[in-house]
Amino acid sequence: MHHLLVLPILVPLIAAGAALLAWRQRRMQRWLGLAGAAGLLAVAVMLLVSVANNGILALQIGDWPAPFGITLVADLFSAVMVTVTGLMGAVVMVYSLVSMDPARESFGYYPLLLILLMGVSGAFLTGDLFNLYVWFEVLLIASFVLLVLGGERAQLAGAIKYFTLNLIASALFLSAVGILYSVAGTLNLADLAVQLPRLGQPGLITVLAMLFLVAFGIKAAIFPLFFWLPDSYHTPPLPVTTIFAALLTKVGVYALVRTFTLLFTQDIAYTHTLLLVLAGLTMVTGVLGAVAQMEMRRLLSFHIISQIGYLLLGLGLYTPLALAATLVFMVHVIITKSALFLVSGIVHRLQGTYHLKQLGGLYQSHLGVALLFLLPALSLAGLPPLSGFWAKFALVRAGLEAGQYAITAVGLGVSVLTLFSMTKIWTEAFWKPRTVQEPVRVLQGRERLLYFLPALTLVGLTVLLGVLAEPIFTLATAAAQQLIDPSAYIQTVLGGAL
Amino acid sequence: MSKSAILSIAVRYLLPLQLLFALFVLVRGHNEPGGGFIAGLVVAAAFALYAIAHDVRQARAVLRFSPRRFIAVGLLLAAASGLVALLAGKPFMTGLWSTVELPVIGKVGTPLMFDIGVFLVVIGVALMMIFTLMEE
Question: Which residues of B are less than 8 Å from A114 in CB distance?
């Protein structure tokens, strides 16, 4: 069974290799991209089912026993994240078939996207801190090229900020890994979880925790390290923006959750309180930035930041309910935010611009598109019975139970502002009559299908997540238990080597 | 750029020697200094020298396949070397060795296959960069 663990990495790799071989055949590359993403989704679902039934899975690569070799581990949290990666890969791949321009397709778009998916899956599955660094680099290199592919002026300008900030984050991450190794003598996450409390140096470990917080914080775009994100995310073509928005910052959040539940739990009063403060600031600055924007993609990019704040909030509260809420929120926000990006792509296809001032009248001309926007927008703001409501409800409850009233109030206030900024898009793009007199393009046949199918799938899922809140929270609570009490994780990885 | 007669004649003899040396470094790699990465660089250096002595178009012709193809085949070969263990029921990438010793090379196994994969990827990546920059 544990052989399943390697497949989410292998499937995209093999598809990417095959796509490189078929460099000149664009049709073939499209099929390989689709097959790779669909294959990833299939093996990820199998992995999730297996982990849900049999508990945490671990695989010692090359049969080298932990903590000496590289271990791949999938607990429920990892398995869910890999499944969402596969889902987003498949959805964006279908959307790319119709919206990506042939020039970019011929210059390796599909292999790069597959490599990106491989890197993300690897980061979610690895049980080794240095290996995590390697996967970060894999996905970053793929994302650098995807970001500048096409070489437009705005793309390059955005890429410089993205590139510089992420390089700094990588350098910090690597130094932190080096110091941690010199302190603990191991980089296997499970082994570190055993060794760190034995060191008796909580001060030093807190310093290390802060280094990791900055490194992962840049990648997760938390306050005050987020400014690269809204400057770069709106520059590449929409499918690239969507997959970045869906997965890249979430890998940073995943790494924060993993390290701050497994490793840095010695001085919770300090580290996790700091996380709460950062969560509040991230939420507020993100949403205030969003309210000020007039370009759809930039507005949505600022929302990514504000939603990251909610994820941090759950981690900072550090109770089983809060972590379960974080997990649900993570899945919810990936799906809803991507749905909004995909719909903004459809809007752009119809009216030729992302700018709210020039958009208009879509409610009248395209009721379907309006509904496709409205549902995820309300879900993001947290209206029942959509997925966002349950995720926020659980977070708020966890906050109140933990007695953190101030931060909970901030979370609720930010929800209102989120709703406000969503109504801004709604009134400008959908409700107000269109001022610019240009013919509205019409989508037909296959193009229409490929534009709408991915968005419809995601919107359907956000509704489904809301309806199925009960079983989803059962799963998330089980995942949170594994995070709060890592003994099963450690036991599975190290086996008898303790 | 004027071509040097000495260099272009020397390269004709150097190229096969460099390739042979690369093979030597590649096979030696598992237990002693060497391996796929460094051997790949030696090959790339050989073709870069050929491109300097003649020109990039001719170097590409001597290489026969595009650097991109080297990368793709190398990646797939490296992945396949891990899959062998999977088929044998061992964890991914477990080193499996043949029991018979070959002359000169010694025992062969999946790590050598992985190394050949790395070798091809490094040739492809290095030459892709070198050729692209020289063509600018």
Answer: none
